[in-house]
Amino acid sequence: MDLVDRWVALAGPHTRHIGAELDERYGEPHRRYHTREHLAAVLDLVDELAGHAAEPDLVRLAAWFHDAVYDPERADNEERSARLAARMLADTDLGRQDVDQVVRLVELTTTHAPDEDDADGQVLCDADLAILGAEPGRYAAYAAAVREEYAFVPDELFMAGRAEVLNGLLALPRLFHTPAAHDRFEERARANIRTELMLLSA
User: Fold this and answer.
1) Which of 23, 92, 130, 162 has its CA 20 to 30 A from that of 189?
2) With contact defined as beta carbons under 8 Å apart, do 141 and 132 qualify?
3) What's the whole-model pTM score?
4) Contact, 81 vs 108, CB < 8 A?
């Protein structure tokens, strides 16, 4: 099933135009990691973790929008993605409360720090960060793709900024919040991050 068909299965045929626009956004040429492949991987993991969610379809909608706006030269992509979700979902039959929940979930991907009682936020954040716990070769490809997205940043500045992000992740008490994702990804993710930090400082 291609991505647009996957959107239609979730949101209905009358919203196909929204799925088509989102699909185009994830196909933008400046993207190297935040691509259709990343979106599909996040959606797949949301499906796997859906049993933990209170409203799995709202988590799926948030996954579609979480990187819908992506400009590596700006720091407000999550906020702009959330605004896009609010605007586009207002044209559907989704209730206001559900739209607000999708918007909240998209905004949560700024920090990836859901509350202990936020099951939906935990599922989305775990699905988004799962690449951190990938096998080392795939993690290395992810790190290289992120560097390509920031090709406009000089090496020294990129390395400092990337190290700050990675150290911030390591400082979190938990990278993954759902039991399934924590068991599957936490240990390898921390090893991958420590390896990348070592390579950055080499």
Assistant:
1) 23
2) no
3) 0.96
4) no
